[in-house]
């Protein structure tokens, strides 16, 4: 106390000496100061200084209340005091517990708050003129975060064993392995390599014929055979289905909103167009910079044909398919939509969680609240079009949609009647389905377009849309420095939303994150883990890359090769590192349990989609053509009242209906994400629900039945049947012991069922084959 | 010691969060010891008073003033309060309404929390917050956090079972490893007699044939593993196949209550109250309570039961009486059995809903109530809490909690603490930051109620 009193009297002298009375109006200066000393300062000292003074352990909200200037400069949320205007002064709002609540333990008494009000009305006279020490704001250039340093194309390191590498990338890997006095494991056997390549590039297993042919070719031509196989697989349409699905994880793709918090889950009947767009883009090898630009600002890109225009509009669905909390009683709804958009670009494209800065400066990463609202302005200046939200205004207000020009008109089937209806809560009778504003069958798409009057976004103090601070000029993250290719820096055109410039900024060749993040994702899909093992978090809290130089080497090549994903994937799969066996000596595994050296490949479980697709392929039931649209394309309904809409399908899993909170039952048990936010990496859990699915799900039993029929109708002897089952599921012949075990199982099982015994027994064996780890894992 | 918060967060990320990160990376969740959380560095682990939780979830907002929060007329004017008769029960003299004659026998086991309060009177949001701490977004459920913190206690069953459950967000493990996801049995408000676990059985093969089939699969799997000796997780897959196989027997066996005596079925009122009365749905709460006892005996960590709806707006008295009748004897029977089997000492029973209701004024004939989130009642029993005890209170009209206030995050903190988990340090790193059940504000443990 005495220290405070002393300081107080010192500053009083300074204030008296330095301040012209005019600064405080005409009233006698002394009376104002008395008021401050009696009514204001003691409260500040007692209730505020602990967190808001120079010696606070951690300065709350970067706000200092222990100096005159500090109160006026304010903190993250803006000035605490606005002279003469108590109502706009944040400190008064906070004391009133109006949006912000201070002091946090309990509100101060009404009379104290009134003191503050009258003090500010007087002009907030304040003798505490000590200069506040500069509060550091996190600023870009000073940051030492590795991922924000420019991508350098590092020199390829020397290695001792010069014959081992087949690509420069191998030298980065080998150099590190050699430095640990270790050796990479042996190359994968050709049959294993064939399966790995097929699954990694197309998501489907090879047929045994394909494996046999590759093995022969490989024995003769070695690496050339691999190149041919890789090129052939990259050219298959199944490539886009596999890698498009990977991107759909990043894009948190869903065909319904998911629970809005009020138990309602409206469908997105047009979301599938975005899915098809993504698959096509991957198959066409759309350069990644272009791919991003289309998704962020396709509506603003010039197009040469209606088809191209459609494509661009559909691409912006990327920012419109997010999962939203309900509008009802939610003042922040509009900013929740923006938060999702910022998040998918932040984590998905840049590997940074920008979302924290909605309420406060990021605690670890150099992202300020200012940055957040600079980005937000690009989206608040855009109109997000999700559709009618099943005509539930409390869930989300209905919006317009993009009307496509070249896409065909598809009418609902003639006998189609909507069976899922909303009941009127008063009468209990079904509500009439409101008439659509478009003629039936009009091709529509979710997406974004610019508002008529773009404007900068005001800071929402502590994320509350009712508490507005200053407007922040639209822009990007100050922490990422980007060289502009044009003379002027990339800046937002005031007449536009800013999304086009955001896309240009993100895809600038010198953006430190965009290429690194994508290269890392590709690596993760090919090796099971990324070089950075937190693919959505390249921030301070994320992991460091195992091989920073390799990451930069690949990122540089990626950009130099015109952002071609196919070329990037080709480069990696043709490397010696990728083609290593997943088996290794115990010594190597012990020395590097987590495979941080990449001295071996890794055993991976088929993901939910690949497992289902592989079962369909093995049973001969797979329909390899793309599905047309979606089962909900004519259905603007609330899914949660609809029970199970899913229908059996023989198409690839990517074409199933990805309803949020109501996942396709054929995929759900194997760690299918909820797609509420962008997915960094699929979980690989081992839970009994998976075993139960394999034992008892109608889908698996059905595929086992088809597979058994193939075997029993095409092969007569038991040996031949077992062999066929092995070849269709595991791409190999059974070992003698396996053959004996299989036949023994069939015979024993057959005895238990009457007339249909044999048939049932072969079904049991077929199901067993689909259940084995060898079928469900890839080396 | 002058740690910055940032350093603290980092260090905890190497304690609790570290294991979590390992799990996130796909380490087989069933491997020995995983899911069990080692004490974070510098985090004192409290003594575990309970091992498992049975949550009797009363959705819709039970009227606290007509059940457990006695409000006699004490002011000069007639005012809202309790409109049913209350009586002091047990040695402790706990006030309980006439609507719970059977439960009243257990007065000396009950620990009333009369100072509960919540943020919102919106059903879905408050219901979600009651389960996950968060009103608007999908977050891990209480049962998932507990299983994440303590791991599983049984080999044949999941650690989190949600009976007669409504939305998946209520039992979701969200970003926690999916092994901690609740397993739903039955659909909210629908008949429970045929409710089961998805894919838990099928008719196409006999169990014997399935065993032969699995023996062949495991022979194949062991051969596969032998060539990949360093792949530990393949071993846990093999174990998980066995667990799944055992669940095919264990789960239906537990769900099959035909082995229980007639007297037991009667005590629990299994299969009774089959008619919907106003908001009171035929949830077969008796069967749920009996199943809860069987799952508790089998070592399931977190069992949630559901009955509703207690949202009796219009016919307050009729619907409330129906709800009480449908749950009174079943809950009493559950407490009887837990006590008899010496399970109550380490089973924490929790009763409550998303908020309470404003009181009616006696004799004015009004029969309509709304929502009241500012003050309501939960009760706890067993699991290391004081019995026959009242903690907290509301004002004279029961509208607002005034003493011993407990928010959902405080309730969550208290439950975690009773289970020996550090409430505000049980964290999981996700999407750029550490998350915890008690949210950014943290929860306060009501140590006053500990026995």
TrEMBL record, chain A:
Q: Which Pfam families match?
A: PSCyt1 (PF07635), PSCyt2 (PF07583), PSD1 (PF07587)
Residue ranges of domain DUF1549 in the record: 168-383
User: Which controlled-vocabulary keywords does the entry list?
Assistant: Signal
User: What protein name applies here?
Assistant: Planctomycete cytochrome C
- The answer to whether UniProt assigns keyword Ligase to this entry is no
Organism annotation: Kolteria novifilia
Query: What residue stretches are annotated with the Cytochrome C Planctomycete-type domain?
Result: 48-106
**Segment forming the signal sequence:** 1-23
InterPro entries from the xrefs? Cyt_c_Planctomycete-type, DUF1549, DUF1553
What range(s) does the DUF1553 domain occupy?
Answer: 498-742
From TrEMBL, chain B:
Transmembrane intervals: none
Its domain of life reads: Bacteria
Q: Identify the Gene3D superfamilies for this entry.
A: Alkaline Phosphatase, subunit A (3.40.720.10)
Recorded hits in InterPro entries, A to Z, give: Alkaline_phosphatase_core_sf (IPR017850), DUF1501 (IPR010869)
Name of this protein: Sulfatase
Organism in which the protein naturally occurs: Kolteria novifilia
